[in-house]
Protein backbone atom coordinates (compact mmCIF):
# COMPACT_ATOMS: atom_id res chain seq x y z
CA UNK A 1 0.00 0.00 0.00
CA UNK A 2 1.35 3.40 -0.93
CA UNK A 3 1.82 6.07 1.72
CA UNK A 4 -1.10 8.16 0.43
CA UNK A 5 -3.37 5.13 0.36
CA UNK A 6 -2.48 4.37 3.98
CA UNK A 7 -3.30 7.94 5.00
CA UNK A 8 -6.62 7.82 3.15
CA UNK A 9 -7.46 4.38 4.59
CA UNK A 10 -6.72 5.63 8.11
CA UNK A 11 -8.60 8.93 7.84
CA UNK A 12 -11.69 7.47 6.13
CA UNK A 13 -11.68 4.55 8.55
CA UNK A 14 -11.43 6.89 11.53
CA UNK A 15 -14.31 9.06 10.35
CA UNK A 16 -16.54 6.07 9.62
CA UNK A 17 -15.61 4.44 12.94
CA UNK A 18 -16.51 7.57 14.90
CA UNK A 19 -19.83 7.87 13.05
CA UNK A 20 -20.58 4.20 13.74
CA UNK A 21 -19.82 4.60 17.45
CA UNK A 22 -21.97 7.74 17.71
CA UNK A 23 -24.94 6.09 16.02
CA UNK A 24 -24.67 2.75 17.85
CA UNK A 25 -24.25 4.38 21.27
CA UNK A 26 -27.15 6.81 20.71
CA UNK A 27 -29.60 4.76 22.85
CA UNK A 28 -27.23 5.11 25.81
CA UNK A 29 -27.17 8.91 25.66
CA UNK A 30 -30.52 9.69 23.99
CA UNK A 31 -32.90 6.99 25.25
CA UNK A 32 -35.89 7.64 22.95
CA UNK A 33 -34.33 9.22 19.86
CA UNK A 34 -31.30 6.95 20.11
CA UNK A 35 -33.36 3.84 19.40
CA UNK A 36 -34.21 5.30 15.99
CA UNK A 37 -30.59 6.32 15.31
CA UNK A 38 -28.95 3.05 16.36
CA UNK A 39 -29.92 0.98 13.28
CA UNK A 40 -28.23 3.62 11.12
CA UNK A 41 -24.84 2.41 12.40
CA UNK A 42 -25.05 -0.14 9.57
CA UNK A 43 -24.49 2.65 7.03
CA UNK A 44 -20.88 3.71 7.81
CA UNK A 45 -19.73 0.09 7.98
CA UNK A 46 -21.42 -0.71 4.67
CA UNK A 47 -19.81 2.36 3.07
CA UNK A 48 -16.42 1.27 4.34
CA UNK A 49 -16.95 -2.26 2.99
CA UNK A 50 -17.95 -0.92 -0.44
CA UNK A 51 -14.78 1.16 -0.47
CA UNK A 52 -12.57 -1.74 0.67
CA UNK A 53 -13.45 -5.04 2.38
CA UNK A 54 -10.61 -4.77 4.88
CA UNK A 55 -11.69 -1.21 5.71
CA UNK A 56 -15.21 -2.44 6.46
CA UNK A 57 -13.91 -5.13 8.80
CA UNK A 58 -11.53 -2.65 10.44
CA UNK A 59 -14.34 -0.14 11.02
CA UNK A 60 -16.55 -2.90 12.47
CA UNK A 61 -13.99 -4.16 14.98
CA UNK A 62 -12.56 -0.76 15.93
CA UNK A 63 -16.10 0.50 16.56
CA UNK A 64 -16.82 -2.55 18.72
CA UNK A 65 -13.65 -1.97 20.75
CA UNK A 66 -14.59 1.64 21.42
CA UNK A 67 -18.18 0.67 22.24
CA UNK A 68 -16.99 -1.84 24.83
CA UNK A 69 -15.83 1.16 26.88
CA UNK A 70 -19.11 3.04 26.37
CA UNK A 71 -21.67 0.23 26.57
CA UNK A 72 -20.71 -3.46 26.36
CA UNK A 73 -24.29 -4.41 25.42
CA UNK A 74 -24.24 -2.04 22.43
CA UNK A 75 -20.87 -3.49 21.38
CA UNK A 76 -22.35 -6.99 21.37
CA UNK A 77 -25.39 -5.80 19.42
CA UNK A 78 -23.10 -4.11 16.88
CA UNK A 79 -20.99 -7.25 16.42
CA UNK A 80 -23.91 -9.62 15.93
CA UNK A 81 -26.52 -7.49 14.14
CA UNK A 82 -26.08 -3.98 12.76
CA UNK A 83 -22.33 -4.12 12.25
CA UNK A 84 -22.06 -7.50 10.61
CA UNK A 85 -25.07 -6.60 8.45
CA UNK A 86 -23.20 -3.53 7.17
CA UNK A 87 -20.04 -5.50 6.49
CA UNK A 88 -21.85 -8.25 4.56
CA UNK A 89 -24.09 -5.85 2.67
CA UNK A 90 -21.25 -3.50 1.70
CA UNK A 91 -19.02 -6.38 0.68
CA UNK A 92 -21.55 -8.24 -1.47
CA UNK A 93 -23.85 -5.60 -2.97
CA UNK A 94 -21.54 -4.41 -5.75
CA UNK A 95 -19.38 -7.53 -5.95
CA UNK A 96 -22.06 -10.27 -6.17
CA UNK A 97 -25.35 -8.45 -6.81
CA UNK A 98 -28.40 -7.44 -4.83
CA UNK A 99 -30.04 -10.90 -4.61
CA UNK A 100 -26.93 -12.55 -3.14
CA UNK A 101 -26.48 -9.56 -0.84
CA UNK A 102 -30.07 -9.74 0.43
CA UNK A 103 -30.03 -13.50 1.02
CA UNK A 104 -26.59 -13.51 2.67
CA UNK A 105 -27.44 -10.47 4.79
CA UNK A 106 -30.73 -12.05 5.92
CA UNK A 107 -28.98 -15.27 6.93
CA UNK A 108 -26.27 -13.37 8.82
CA UNK A 109 -28.74 -11.02 10.56
CA UNK A 110 -31.12 -13.80 11.61
CA UNK A 111 -28.15 -15.87 12.85
CA UNK A 112 -26.96 -12.89 14.88
CA UNK A 113 -30.43 -12.40 16.34
CA UNK A 114 -30.60 -16.07 17.28
CA UNK A 115 -27.17 -15.91 18.94
CA UNK A 116 -28.13 -12.75 20.84
CA UNK A 117 -31.48 -14.17 21.94
CA UNK A 118 -30.59 -17.76 22.83
CA UNK A 119 -26.86 -17.74 23.66
CA UNK A 120 -25.98 -14.25 24.90
CA UNK A 121 -29.39 -13.62 26.46
CA UNK A 122 -30.11 -10.21 24.92
CA UNK A 123 -33.78 -10.33 23.94
CA UNK A 124 -34.10 -9.56 20.26
CA UNK A 125 -37.87 -9.47 20.19
CA UNK A 126 -38.78 -9.13 23.85
CA UNK A 127 -40.99 -11.97 24.96
CA UNK A 128 -41.52 -13.31 21.43
CA UNK A 129 -38.89 -16.02 21.86
CA UNK A 130 -40.50 -17.17 25.11
CA UNK A 131 -44.09 -17.32 23.89
CA UNK A 132 -43.61 -18.97 20.49
CA UNK A 133 -42.20 -22.37 19.61
CA UNK A 134 -38.56 -22.48 18.53
CA UNK A 135 -39.20 -23.26 14.83
CA UNK A 136 -41.79 -20.49 14.58
CA UNK A 137 -39.46 -18.04 16.33
CA UNK A 138 -36.62 -18.92 13.95
CA UNK A 139 -38.94 -18.48 10.98
CA UNK A 140 -40.11 -15.12 12.35
CA UNK A 141 -36.50 -13.99 12.80
CA UNK A 142 -35.66 -14.98 9.22
CA UNK A 143 -38.74 -13.34 7.67
CA UNK A 144 -38.11 -10.14 9.63
CA UNK A 145 -34.45 -10.23 8.57
CA UNK A 146 -35.36 -10.78 4.93
CA UNK A 147 -37.71 -7.77 4.90
CA UNK A 148 -35.32 -5.58 6.92
CA UNK A 149 -32.25 -6.31 4.78
CA UNK A 150 -34.24 -5.95 1.56
CA UNK A 151 -35.16 -2.41 2.59
CA UNK A 152 -31.57 -1.74 3.68
CA UNK A 153 -30.07 -3.09 0.44
CA UNK A 154 -32.41 -1.12 -1.81
CA UNK A 155 -31.95 2.14 0.11
CA UNK A 156 -28.20 1.65 0.48
CA UNK A 157 -27.78 0.90 -3.22
CA UNK A 158 -29.59 4.14 -4.12
CA UNK A 159 -27.44 6.08 -1.64
CA UNK A 160 -24.20 4.46 -2.80
CA UNK A 161 -25.12 5.04 -6.45
CA UNK A 162 -25.58 8.71 -5.65
CA UNK A 163 -22.17 8.82 -3.94
CA UNK A 164 -20.64 7.09 -6.97
CA UNK A 165 -22.38 9.53 -9.31
CA UNK A 166 -20.90 12.54 -7.50
CA UNK A 167 -17.56 10.67 -7.39
CA UNK A 168 -17.33 10.55 -3.62
CA UNK A 169 -16.73 6.79 -3.69
CA UNK A 170 -15.84 4.28 -6.38
CA UNK A 171 -16.50 0.54 -6.66
CA UNK A 172 -13.25 -0.23 -8.53
From TrEMBL:
Key words of the record: Membrane, Transmembrane, Transmembrane helix
Transmembrane feature ranges: 12-33, 45-69, 75-94, 106-126, 132-155
Protein name (record): Uncharacterized protein
The organism of origin for this protein: Pseudobacteroides cellulosolvens ATCC 35603 = DSM 2933
Amino acid sequence: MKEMEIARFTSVGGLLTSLTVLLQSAPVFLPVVGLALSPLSTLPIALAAVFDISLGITVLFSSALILIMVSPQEAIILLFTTGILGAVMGTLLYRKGIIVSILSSAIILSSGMIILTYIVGVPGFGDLADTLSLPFTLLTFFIFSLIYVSIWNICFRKFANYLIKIRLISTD
